[in-house]
Amino acid sequence: MEGMSVIGFIFGLSGMSLAIIAWTQIASLRKEFEELKKCLEDSGDLKEDEDNA
What pTM was estimated for this model as a whole? Predict the structure, then answer.
């Protein structure tokens, strides 16, 4: 029975580490998307698309 709790603890730690990795990747992608959006707004391409919508 103790072995099952150890296995559960290991799976819990690995799941938590994967969630932290995913969280940091999402934050990085969000930052890159905001930079791309700002770049498109500065060039005027994004504003033209919003006018056509």
Answer: 0.62
Residue 1 lies in a domain: no
pLDDT digits (tens, 9 = 90+) for 13-53: 999 999 999 999 999 999 999 999 999 888 887 665 555 55
What Cα–Cα distance (Å) separates residue 9 from each residue in 1, 12, 21, 45? 13, 5, 18, 51
Interatomic CA distance for residues 43 and 45, integer angstroms: 6
Per the structure, the complete domain to which residue 38 belongs is given by 23-53
**Helix (H) or strand (E) segment spanning residue 12:** helix 2-43
The token pair that represents 34 in the structure block:
């905001």
